[in-house]
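Researcher: Quick test of sequence recovery. Tokens follow.
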């Protein structure tokens, strides 16, 4: 019947159908059940209903389609096939320190991997209860924690500095069997001052991600000595926890130091609850016979009745420092293991890995050859190692929303292998950071970079959008306030992956390896779609202009509406967002992308002409100057509806008509007051955004504008400081200003290392291509490089950390720390690799 109706549809006018159906109201109910001899009238009614139904169904399907498009994966083969993280396909990268948010945590690249990790607590203090360390937290105020060496693959050595003692966490892998082999970890606690006794508890745990697997703790004479387990991707395994080693000195003072053992066998619904659950399992016991000193000890087996079995097992060891604890993960499929990976064998293997690391480091970065001192080289090794040691493996789905979704919905579940900007503060994937991260990572290991970039590109949806902040899995979500979880598909983020891809792709094309070929084949259609997403969704009103979407013209409390998408959050843009504003940095990013696309397409024998044309157009200096050069300001600029004359003020209380009544509660946050009407003009803030045509090497080498830029860079009243280039000019009205009552300046003066790196890269370029300003560029390059390296190193020595950004007046590190995302690019700056 439906088919019948559809066929007749062209002859049926809506008016007729309405009248017909009204006349036959009584028949309506019968109609669907009747068959055969229908009179013509009934047939027409049937047809009408079908048409209406079809329209409705089509409408609802279309609405559903619009709602779902955001969560529809791009229809193209994955770059990283589903099995590529398995021990069978990629045994080398299966195990790692893939939980960057934990001070020391190990897991595998199985999507439901068991996790292993460390917590610790200083005992016998005045604090009740004493703080328990687990996830990296700036509030812990540690004096530092840094992977001194980490190769991203086989081993890592980290030092964690508490006020009274240091903790060294080392781990190393040993291949064998069909599940990627074994690993061992050693945790050594050493007091800073041996004459001050300190008692510390070390907690080492194993936990399953929900119930996929088994954990069977083994007790020997009341002590937890090992955990036997099984998991579908790992097979059988055992975590052995031999007795702690107490070094001879500890016992020297007289009697043998007291060692207390305890354990906790329990159940956790989610991995982000481990610490809370364990805290609930602590009880107070007497440390000494006189019962004068209490300490905290785990309370044994506490498994709820209604769960399949324990999935969280902790061993606690408490004693006076120093002591060393080892844990040995042994894979069940490993045969002919020989000696256990413990004690001398462990030390010897770590030592040989460290030697390999040192040799490889010098081979790639040549810092010794460049005359750097040993402490500077150790610092550079730590910067690289923290980037590699911070690589995580996450699995889950983002919460996303498009304008067709009333509520946020779940993206598809997927893995993400990625570095992170900062372990305590941003322990998850960020799209625009990751391109910078991979400038460094790809120098160390092109294979790791390809794996990371492939994972990101596989997160692309049918529109070519990639959510810019990836908050996957319960451990990652627990770190993010809920208002920041949802990702919107109108919002782009700088396509920084084109920076590392430029060189990587050249290598892959040269290599002739079949796996590289397959990679490129899967990568290219994704890059095309990605490029197209930027080139279409972020374009401006005028042809060949671009605008960051996602700025909110309705905000009232911001001095300048944020541009989070650009990555430069509060960097001042047009004061009144409009659809015809244009952003010079975005134009340059897309120019870069078009250029790289042209190169890739050409070397793959694909059609590259259109990319070349777009690139030529976007880098045409005449057109660029027309659209973005402010002759008044003598600088490249955004353009839009703008006024500088605005400030934040406390709102005035409303007039109070009835003195007896209390005024209604009001929002007392400062609001923006506009002091002079905005007009369409160039935005005259001078800073990183103004530099983009230079940063991305678009300004012609013989352009007098290059000369102006070089002079502005070195002008201390504008961007130049002794510590690197500040983000906006000291002369700017926005310099150091809060953007709202509660938002301190972020990109309004501070020195950021990613931008300084791009600047050095540009200076390096302009000092090597023929042109009238070569020598000038060379001088600026030399001075800027020296200032940056000196200051970042000095601050590391002074504070123990590499920082998110640096104060332009004092050079002091600011913001989250350790921040060994793009601030770790200092290694490439030292090595002069651009
Ligand atoms: C991994 O998957 C690919 C296709 O998705 C397949 O060709 C390959 O044989 C698989 N490899 C293994 C070791 O299972
Ligand atoms: C980018 O967009 C413009 C239109 O804004 C179009 O003319 C050009 O061909 C596009 N470039 C590519 C490579 O698709």
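Model:
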């Amino acid at each position: 019947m439906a088919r019948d109706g559809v066929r007749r549809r062209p002859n049926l006018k809506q008016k007729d159908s309405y009248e017909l159906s009204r006349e036959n109201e009584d028949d309506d109910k019968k109609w669907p059940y009747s068959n055969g001899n229908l009179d013509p009238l009934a047939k027409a009614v049937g047809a009408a209903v079908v048409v209406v139904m079809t329209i409705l169904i089509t409408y609802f399907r279309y609405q559903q389609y619009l709602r779902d498009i955001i969560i529809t994966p791009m229809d193209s083969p994955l770059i990283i096939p589903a099995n590529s993280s398995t021990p069978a396909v990629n045994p080398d990268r299966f195990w790692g320190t893939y939980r960057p948010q934990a001070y020391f945590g190990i897991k595998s690249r199985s999507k439901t991997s068991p996790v292993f990790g460390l917590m610790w607590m200083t005992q016998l203090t005045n604090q009740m209860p004493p703080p328990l360390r687990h996830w990296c937290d700036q509030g812990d105020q540690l004096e530092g924690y840094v992977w001194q060496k980490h190769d991203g693959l086989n081993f890592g050595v980290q030092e964690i500095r508490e006020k009274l003692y240091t903790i060294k966490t080392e781990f190393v892998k040993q291949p064998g069997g069909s599940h990627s082999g074994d690993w061992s970890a050693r945790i050594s606690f050493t007091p800073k001052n041996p004459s001050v006794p300190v008692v510390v508890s070390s907690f080492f745990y194993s936990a399953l991600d929900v119930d996929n697997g088994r954990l069977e703790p083994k007790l020997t004479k009341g002590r937890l000595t090992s955990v036997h387990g099984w998991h579908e991707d790992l097979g059988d395994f055992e975590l052995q926890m031999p007795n702690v080693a107490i070094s001879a000195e500890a016992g020297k003072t007289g009697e043998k130091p007291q060692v207390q053992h305890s354990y906790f066998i329990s159940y956790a619904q989610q991995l982000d609850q481990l610490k809370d659950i364990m805290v609930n399992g602590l009880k107070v016991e007497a440390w000494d016979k006189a019962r004068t000193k209490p300490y905290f000890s785990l309370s044994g087996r506490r498994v709820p009745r209604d769960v399949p079995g324990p999935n969280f097992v902790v061993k606690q060891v408490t004693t006076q420092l120093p002591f060393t604890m080892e844990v040995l993960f042994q894979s069940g499929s490993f045969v002919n293991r020989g000696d256990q990976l413990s004690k001398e064998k462990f030390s010897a293997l770590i030592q040989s890995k460290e030697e390999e690391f040192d040799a490889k480091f010098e081979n790639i970065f040549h810092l010794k050859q460049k005359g750097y001192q040993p402490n500077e080289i150790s610092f550079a090794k730590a910067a690289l190692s923290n980037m590699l040691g911070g690589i995580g493996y996450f699995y889950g789905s983002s919460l996303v929303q498009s304008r067709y979704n009333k509520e946020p919905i779940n993206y598809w579940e997927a893995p993400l292998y990625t570095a992170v900007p900062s372990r305590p503060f941003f322990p998850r994937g960020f799209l625009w950071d990751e391109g910078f991260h991979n400038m460094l990572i790809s120098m160390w290991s092109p294979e790791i970079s390809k794996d990371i970039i492939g994972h990101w590109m596989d997160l692309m949806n049918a529109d070519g959008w990639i959510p810019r902040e990836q908050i996957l899995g319960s451990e990652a979500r627990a770190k993010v306030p809920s208002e920041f979880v949802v990702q919107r598909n109108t919002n782009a983020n700088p396509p920084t992956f084109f920076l590392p891809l430029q060189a990587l792709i050249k290598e892959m094309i040269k290599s002739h390896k079949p796996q590289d070929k397959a990679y490129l084949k899967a990568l290219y259609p994704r890059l095309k779609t990605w490029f197209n997403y930027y080139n279409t969704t972020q374009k401006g009103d005028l042809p060949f202009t671009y605008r960051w979407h996602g700025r909110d013209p309705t905000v009232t409390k911001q001095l300048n509406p944020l541009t989070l998408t650009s990555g430069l959050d509060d960097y001042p843009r047009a004061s009144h967002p409009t659809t015809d504003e244009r952003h010079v940095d975005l134009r340059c990013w897309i120019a870069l992308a078009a250029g790289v696309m042209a190169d890739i397409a050409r070397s793959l024998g694909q059609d590259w002409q259109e990319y070349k044309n777009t690139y030529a157009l976007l880098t045409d200096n005449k057109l660029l100057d027309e659209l973005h050069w402010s002759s008044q300001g003598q600088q490249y600029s955004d353009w839009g509806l703008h006024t500088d004359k605005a400030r934040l003020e406390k709102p005035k209380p409303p007039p109070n008509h009835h003195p007896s009544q209390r005024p209604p509660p009001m929002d007392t946050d400062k609001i923006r007051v506009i002091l002079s009407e905005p007009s369409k003009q160039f935005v005259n803030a001078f800073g990183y955004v103004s530099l983009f045509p230079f940063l991305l090497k678009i300004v012609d080498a013989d352009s007098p504008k290059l000369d102006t830029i070089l002079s502005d860079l070195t002008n201390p009243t504008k961007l130049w400081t002794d510590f690197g280039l500040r983000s906006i000019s000291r002369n700017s009205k926005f310099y150091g200003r809060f953007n709202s009552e509660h938002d301190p300046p972020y990109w309004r003066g501070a020195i950021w290392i990613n931008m300084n790196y791009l600047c050095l890269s540009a200076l390096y370029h302009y000092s090597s291509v023929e042109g009238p300003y070569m020598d000038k560029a060379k001088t600026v390059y030399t001075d800027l490089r020296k200032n940056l390296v000196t200051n970042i190193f000095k601050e590391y020595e002074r504070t123990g950390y590499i920082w998110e950004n640096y104060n332009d007046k004092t050079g002091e590190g600011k913001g989250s720390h350790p921040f060994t995302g793009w601030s770790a690019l200092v290694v490439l700056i030292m090595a002069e690799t651009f």
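The pocket of 2-acetamido-2-deoxy-beta-D-glucopyranose (ligand 1) is lined by residues 81, 83, 88-89 (CB under 6 Å).
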